[in-house]
Model the fold of this input.
Amino acid sequence: MLSERRLQVLRAIVQDYVGTEEPVGSKALTERHNLGVSPATVRNDMAALEDEGFIAQPHTSAGRIPTDKGYRLFVDKLAGVKPMTGPERRAIQNFLDGAVDLDDVVARTVRLLAQLTRQVAVVQYPSLTRSTVRHVELLSLAPARVMLVLITDTGRVEQRMVDCPAPFGEASLADLRARLNSRIAGRRFADVPRLVEDLPEGFDVEDRGTVTTVLSTLLETLVEENEERLMIGGTANLTRFGHDFPLTIRPVLEALEEQVVLLKLLGEAGDSGMTVRIGHENAYEGLNSTSVVSVGYGSGSNEAVAKLGVVGPTRMDYPGTMGAVRAVARYVGQILAES
Done:
């Protein structure tokens, strides 16, 4: 275990390196921070931190920089989450409140996160597997053609055309709509197949084929839409950090193009807890020079329906980034709950 003083020295090194982009020396530390000890003592503490792998010396500098291990200790023990100021919170709320639908919510969230953190923002669409049915609408387009509209508790809307095996009257359509909603409105998608399996039996024989066709389309929609979607923004922000990537930024950009990689990264976040993956903690090699800060967001329940987060260099403002990610996730959850 590191002594409290050495933890303070590590914190000062991280803060200075993130702020100045320059390796940090003992003289600068004693001048900029009230450590209460001599430069010689600070040098000894830095030597101990280096021996234990928390800081390292770049080849061309007398100063030291944090390692992945040093950043991890900083995040776990030393970094509080920086709260948003009042004006920042109002700006977040005003920007997101203007959204007109779910796609707009996700697009605005990506832009906002990228602007607040000056990193790459990644936002996952709410997962249908964790969603509940708000309403099912059935609209007659022709005697034997129906539009099925599925609305989730997160504001997601899915539409399907259904070609029926026989004409289906307005009265029968209204009856099916009422019975369907009475069974599945407010219920989780995973429960829907069980809840509707005997529904055709309650209709006249000549209507059962159409009812079965509508239900099949509904269940196919749930399966089709299980494929997760996400939106990414702010990739150009990485160009500001060229020197933070040892050889080239290319592996990072290639990783960001792989949706499966990003979904896996976000999937490592807990349902609502903050997750920070630093450097080589990221399983995908192309992201070994980055950190990923992610958190779940939901529509009022304890369980997250999706994740959002940012990707940036390991030399990032962790308290500020964690605060921004958490605040945005909270507001997005409120919007979904109220939509």
Summary: The chain has a mean pLDDT of 85. Residues 318-338 form the longest helix (21 residues). Strands lie at 55-56, 65-66, 120-124, 133-142, 145-152, 157-163, 230-233, 275-278, 290-297, 306-313.
